[in-house]
Amino acid sequence: MRLRVYIEDLSKHTGEDVTISGWLYNKRSSGKIRFLIIRDGTGVLQGVLVKANLPEEVFNRFDELTQESSFSMTGAVRKEDRAPGGFEMEVKDVKIISVAQEYPITPKEHGVEFLMDRRHLWLRSSRQHAILRVRHEIIRSIREFFDNRGFTLMDAPIFTPAACEGTSTLFETEYFDLGKAYLTQSGQLYGEAGAMAFGKIYVFGPTFRAEKSKTRRHLTEFWMVEPEVAFNDLNDNMDLAEDFLQHIVGNVLKNRLPELKALERNTAMLENVKAPLPRITYDEAVDILHKKGIAFEWGNDLGGTDETVVSEQFDRPVMVHHYPSAIKAFYMKRDPNNDKLALAVDVLAPEGYGEIIGGSQREDNLDLLLGRIHEHNLPEAAFDWYLDLRKYGSVPHSGFGLGVERTVSWICGLDHVRETIPFARMIYRLNP
Ligand code: 4AD
Ligand code: MG
Question: Across residues 328-343, what is the average pLDDT?
Answer without folding.
Answer: 97
